[in-house]
């Protein structure tokens, strides 16, 4: 049985039993291009290093919206979000807490921070939590970078201040939060353009 393992920094904790992540993190792609949900999803929480997590809980259910779509030809994700319902609640502690959610979508030039456990230069997942500061770009800049999306209410773009840094494979589903308020404004869905040297730090 395949099990998808997610770290708490690859999702957003809404309550101690419900977490938000990217829908494609819960879907395994087969060799023939079809997609099926992982039958089990495990969630780690309470640490910033790979071996320092306090708790591990399996999800009892995953809720992926019917409007989630993946265009295999253009590799475009639409409405890429999902909720995980855990078998039991995480324990509130100094290292496990709930996300603060925004009242408004972020605006152009707002500074945000992406957090994740994405691949490093050697192609292997990071052993510790990494981050990169980015800024929100306007819709036209987003479209100019070939970001194919239909609604600004569900998708927005951010770019790194350093062209050699950014989000990468393995960061999907992680939080993008406002640098000054620590309010989570979105979850990481996909990278646009050449990500060969774009690694978070």
TrEMBL record:
<dbReference type="Pfam" id="PF00089">
    <property type="entry name" value="Trypsin"/>
</dbReference>
<dbReference type="GO" id="GO:0004252">
    <property type="term" value="F:serine-type endopeptidase activity"/>
</dbReference>
<dbReference type="InterPro" id="IPR009003">
    <property type="entry name" value="Peptidase_S1_PA"/>
</dbReference>
<dbReference type="InterPro" id="IPR043504">
    <property type="entry name" value="Peptidase_S1_PA_chymotrypsin"/>
</dbReference>
<dbReference type="InterPro" id="IPR001254">
    <property type="entry name" value="Trypsin_dom"/>
</dbReference>
<keyword id="KW-0732">Signal</keyword>
<dbReference type="InterPro" id="IPR033116">
    <property type="entry name" value="TRYPSIN_SER"/>
</dbReference>
<feature type="domain" description="Peptidase S1">
    <location>
        <begin position="11"/>
        <end position="201"/>
    </location>
</feature>
<keyword id="KW-1015">Disulfide bond</keyword>
<dbReference type="InterPro" id="IPR001314">
    <property type="entry name" value="Peptidase_S1A"/>
</dbReference>
<protein>
    <submittedName>
        <fullName>CSON008541 protein</fullName>
    </submittedName>
</protein>
<keyword id="KW-0720">Serine protease</keyword>
<keyword id="KW-0645">Protease</keyword>
<comment type="similarity">
    <text>Belongs to the peptidase S1 family. CLIP subfamily.</text>
</comment>
<dbReference type="InterPro" id="IPR018114">
    <property type="entry name" value="TRYPSIN_HIS"/>
</dbReference>
<feature type="signal peptide">
    <location>
        <begin position="1"/>
        <end position="23"/>
    </location>
</feature>
<keyword id="KW-0378">Hydrolase</keyword>
<keyword id="KW-0325">Glycoprotein</keyword>
<dbReference type="InterPro" id="IPR051487">
    <property type="entry name" value="Ser/Thr_Proteases_Immune/Dev"/>
</dbReference>
<dbReference type="GO" id="GO:0006508">
    <property type="term" value="P:proteolysis"/>
</dbReference>
């Amino acid at each position: 049985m395949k099990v998808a393992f997610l770290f708490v920094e690859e999702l957003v904790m809404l309550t101690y039993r419900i977490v938000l992540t990217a829908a494609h993190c819960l879907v395994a792609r087969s060799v023939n291009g079809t997609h099926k949900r992982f039958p089990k999803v495990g969630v780690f929480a309470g640490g910033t290093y790979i071996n320092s997590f306090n708790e591990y809980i399996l999800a009892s259910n995953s809720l992926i919206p019917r409007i989630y779509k993946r265009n295999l030809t253009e590799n475009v994700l639409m409405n890429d979000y999902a909720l995980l319902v855990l078998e039991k609640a995480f324990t509130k502690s100094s290292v496990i807490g709930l996300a603060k959610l925004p009242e408004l979508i972020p605006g152009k030039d707002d500074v945000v921070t992406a957090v994740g456990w994405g691949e490093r230069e050697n192609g292997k997942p990071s052993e510790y939590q990494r981050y990169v500061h980015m800024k929100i770009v306007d819709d036209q800049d987003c479209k100019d970078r070939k970001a194919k999306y239909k609604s600004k209410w569900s998708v927005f773009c951010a770019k790194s201040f350093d062209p050699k840094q950014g989000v990468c494979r393995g960061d999907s589903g992680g939080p993008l939060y406002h640098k000054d308020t620590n309010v989570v404004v979105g979850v990481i869905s996909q990278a646009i353009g050449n990500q060969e040297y774009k690694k978070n730090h």
